[in-house]
Amino acid sequence: METGGRATRPVRTRRLADDDRGIEGLPVRLVIALVVGVASLGIMLNMLSGLSGLGVAEVDVAPEPTVTEPGPTNVTVRVVDPDGGGVANATVVARGGSARLGGTRVARTDRNGTARLRLDPKLGANQAEGTVRFSVQPPPEDSFVDRRDNSVLLVVR
């Protein structure tokens, strides 16, 4: 074909579906960006939540005995740090869970992290077992917290 002395090529139309050059590296780049973004977000959230609790450790209780029958009983509760060491001057509070105590009992731990409580758990008429819950108020001068549920005392008929 000639127009005005110049040869023209026939125009060949390309369909978008046939053109894969624009999306060649896109899926891999999206995956990399997503992984980097999620990791960065996780690090930032960890830093933000760690600011208020910088250097704090969760405490737990270790009651002895761990299982008892309804009625008056002496329970020794040891407040322990994550390494299993005793926490001195912590306040231990015992409350009825599914077993009734008729109020709360409070004791302070000694230098070994041990507190002694006189409990009188009771179960309902058709209740075969229940629990006594413990919470801890860590000493204010140390960097301990009690945010999670602690071990319980199981009361079995």
Determine Rg (CA atoms, Å): 33 Å
> What's the level 1 CATH class of the domain at 57-156?
Mainly Beta
Assigned CATH superfamily of the domain at 57-156: Immunoglobulins
- Beta percentage is 25-35%
Structural class: alpha+beta
Structure summary, number of beta strands: 12
CATH topology group of the domain at 57-156:
Immunoglobulin-like
Termini, distance in Å?
A: 103 Å
Question: Main beta sheet, described?
Answer: 5 strands, mixed
Described by the principal axes of the CA atoms, the overall outline is elongated
Total of helices: 1
Strand order of the largest sheet: 5-12-10-7-8
Helix content: 10-25%
Pfam families: DUF7382
Transmembrane segments: 26-45
GO molecular function: carboxypeptidase activity
Keywords: Carboxypeptidase, Hydrolase, Membrane, Protease, Transmembrane, Transmembrane helix
Indicate the topology.
Layout: E1 2-3, E2 6-7, H1 26-52, E3 57-58, E4 60-64, E5 67-68, E6 73-80, E7 91-96, E8 105-108, E9 114-119, E10 129-137, E11 144-145, E12 153-156
Parallel strand pairs: 3-11, 5-12
Antiparallel strand pairs: 1-2, 4-6, 6-9, 7-8, 7-10, 10-12
